Amino acid sequence: MQFDSHRLQRVTALLESYLDEQKYACLDCAVIKDNELVFSYRKGMQDLDSKTPLQANALFRIYSMTKPVTAVALMMLYERGLFQLSDPLHLYLPELANLAVIDPCDPTKTVPAKRPITITDLLTHQAGFSYDFNPDCPVAALYRERGLKLLDYMQPSDTFIQELASLPLRYQPGEHWLYSIASDIQGVLVERLSNKTLAEFFQEEIFTPLGMQDTAFWVPPEKQSRLTTCYTHSSICENPATQKFSHYFAELLGEPTHGPFIAVDSAKEGIYLRDPAFYAGGRGLVSTRDDFLAFCQMLLNKGHHRGSRLLSAYSVDYMTANHLDGDLVQNALPGFSEMHYPGIGFGFGVGVTLAPHKAKILGNPGEYGWGGAASTAFFIDPTENMIVLLLTQCLPSSLFSIRPELRVSLYQALTA
Question: Is a pLDDT exceeding 80 seen at residue 169?
Fold first, then answer.
């Protein structure tokens, strides 16, 4: 199918409405189909204090869109024979052997794990870990007490693993799906297996071969003028979709500084302006439109792009297939996800569309992608040979419904 240029104007109208209603400070959207850029939209302010317009090479915190990059890194090491997907995780991270599990009948007690965590469990968020912001989760509360917080954890990776080793799992390995710090653990696993820091592995093995010149775990001084400011919105406590998570952002919230916007990570003083002690494989990268499109094109091309092959086609197909027994509704514990649950499965670092009619979305089975906490998102549709990328900077991603609305506006514009 091809895009109808007249109907494609509805995509522009949708994005314009989000800016006009002051829901986002900026929006950058690109669609590639059949290796051609067929839609591009870039508008707004990357920093409201300085009134800096959004630049073509603006740097965005992509947060959880780091996860598929980490999964690719681990699959590259898998192809080199450094582990098997069925291997127990403790063979490579011995600190995580013999973890206890929260007793499902009494959250004040623990029980032994029935079996070890496998690397596949880790790649599919079925290992038993949680995130510190998951509401009503006893393990999340323990993470907060130990300082294992998503947005500000800055300890070295070995310290991170040691802290986890003293804490229980939320559920028995392999029994449920729960969005978690598993990708951060994957990053540590990449470091142990490769004898490189995660930043070094990413740069040498992924970013340089793909020509991703600006993607990194921090922003050096010469690029800081391109960093966007990350905001939240004054409606965070009013929106039913975000009320249950507003406690997590409470310490970040102040008074709106520009209309409804509240800066939570400044382009001039934020945490991404220094090299971190911990390279977080689940949420640590900043990137640009062109850089992340190159990563997506590599996946759509089944592992190769710009003359470099990172993975075999078999590995890309394997990681972008559903590894759950059914969809997320059948497997997930209550918690947060960057995708909704019905009709959606999960691969390695990406959600996978199983049944669009169950998911209540337009699209095709076999689409895959993920999003980030600051409302960024991407998905890849192999059937349409298409990549869709949305970049902005507004926490949390569940605040507004731009992702499903963007999908509808795009697919309605595809005609035979």
Answer: yes
